[in-house]
Design a protein that fits this description.
about 25% strand, alpha/beta, 11 helices, seven-stranded mixed β-sheet
Length: about 350
């Protein structure tokens, strides 16, 4: 049986490169030869044992590659075609999909409830940090890469760009809004870009890393709040003349940033939560106005599917957003354990790592 190299979760604090069988292709599947992928913060949660997955699972959920083999029932694509697939791979025919929430495909099914729904790669099926990945429901999930776009230009589309943009979309950012983004990691930076595209005219980024602050400015941030220079809530309220923000996007996944997001909202404002939380959250009575402040809290799982990917690649191709600066490091798949060590420990100014087999 032909083998491939794959990054496999072995146990807490151990993701290693192993040989695995190249997957068989079912009627609705497509086998993709990976040309570029990356490591996500969620993969680090898996590495640290904060998010449970099965031992032996191939991790990763951000694929760019070439169709190696198509299932017998797949139409509209050809072998040798360059494609991406979203981190979320909805079937298109589940209850969740038909209710308009494709990201939650599979949630609440007869197989048991899972809050992560349509996130299959590197969660409930083998993922993309490998030489090949099997894409389920290929006709709903494969999206051809436009000519002229490099792998690295579309590498953010499957997850980081889709998730960050959805923070602004779910928060219903409007023209003239004031928006704050807590934490300018890759998702937070994409949230800044998404808020600008949605029409926000004042965008406040909260972070202390100079390189991330600079990229945030390039992507549309009008103000930067460095939390090491004083209470970020006080700084944000001063910037808004005490009014507060229309939308606060929480892109880290911590109690501190979640609570601060609540505290800077104007009456009736929206907290758009993108963070992955590894402990229970507490909602302070005063920050939530005892439930009487008309405030809204909304969570979003990265939208996927081929139409979402097409739209994101159109944004990249238009030149309205340049996410190339987010790729700060490059590794071969053979060196992925070193890449994890760098990314998990946030050394050397790392934002995103491009991994190439």
């Amino acid at each position: 049986m032909p083998k491939m190299k794959a990054a496999v979760f072995v146990e807490k604090n151990r993701i290693v490169l192993e040989d695995k069988a190249i997957p068989d292709v079912g009627p609705l599947d497509a086998l993709i030869r990976i040309t570029t992928t990356t490591i996500c913060g969620t993969d680090v949660h898996i590495l640290k044992g904060e998010y449970p997955v099965a031992k032996g699972l191939t991790v990763g959920h951000e694929p760019v590659g070439i169709i190696e083999k198509l299932g017998s029932a797949v139409a509209g694509f050809s072998e040798g075609q360059r494609v991406i697939a979203g981190a979320i791979t909805p079937s298109g025919h589940s209850f969740a999909c038909l209710c308009g929430c494709a990201s939650q495909d599979g949630a609440g099914s007869k197989h048991g409830f899972t809050a992560t729904g349509g996130w299959k790669f590197g969660n409930i099926i083998d993922g993309c940090q490998a030489e090949y990945v099997l894409v389920p429901d290929a006709m709903a999930n494969l999206s051809p890469v436009p000519d002229g776009l490099s792998d690295e230009e579309v590498l953010m589309c499957p997850d980081i760009m889709s998730t960050g943009f959805s923070g602004a979309e779910s928060g219903q950012v409007q023209i003239g809004d004031t928006v704050v983004v807590f934490a300018l990691g890759p998702i937070g930076l994409c949230a800044v870009a998404g808020a600008k595209l949605k029409g926000a005219t004042t965008i406040i980024g909260v972070d202390t890393v100079p390189a991330r602050q600079e990229v945030a400015r390039q992507l549309g941030a009008s103000h930067i709040v460095d939390f090491k220079q004083g209470d970020p809530v006080a700084q944000i309220m001063a910037l808004t003349d005490g009014r507060g923000v229309d939308v606060a996007i929480e892109a880290l996944g911590s109690q501190a940033t979640f609570e601060a997001s609540l505290r800077v909202l104007r009456p009736g404002g929206t907290l758009s939560s993108l963070g992955v939380y590894s402990t229970d959250l507490r909602i302070p009575l005063d920050a939530f106005a005892a439930g009487l402040g008309d405030k809204k809290i909304i969570t979003t799982l990265c939208p996927g599917g081929k139409e979402r990917m097409r739209r994101l690649m159109e944004v990249v191709a238009s030149g309205r957003v340049d996410l190339k600066p987010l790729v700060t490091h490059r590794y071969k798949l053979d060196d992925i354990e070193a890449a994890y060590d760098l990314f998990a420990n946030q050394r050397d100014g790392v934002m995103k790592v491009a991994i190439t087999p």
